[in-house]
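note to self: dont lose this again. the chain is below, predicted strucutre after it. 133 aa total, dont forget to put it in the shared folder this time
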Amino acid sequence: MAIFALQSPAGGFLDEDMQHFNKKFDDWCVQFDNLEDANLIASTLQKRESVEIVEITPLSYPQYFFPTLQGDIHATRQIDDKIICILEPHMSSGYRLAVCDLKTKKVRITPTRYKSVLSVEGAFANFEERSNI
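---
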């Protein structure tokens, strides 16, 4: 499950008007089902050297695949059919684990709050042992 997008070296994604770049990847960005189509369109752009083709996956960009996932994501890991994210739901609200199910597209935020990314790292690293959460 992957899609391809055109990105500027500064990090923005090419918008559907093919002139501007969005900071966030969303439905208005140019997207392709395969690398060949992305290469074809990229080659027609005047400033081709300033555009990169990137692969967008649930692991690299979970917020696109799980629209209900809100907040800043600091790390992700895939375990079986789930994407596990270290999430900061709101600025200074503490960190939580988000469990995103690839089959059902549902997101569940675990109740435990952590004070820093480092403190949640242990729970994140050992999630496999607790994958029945």
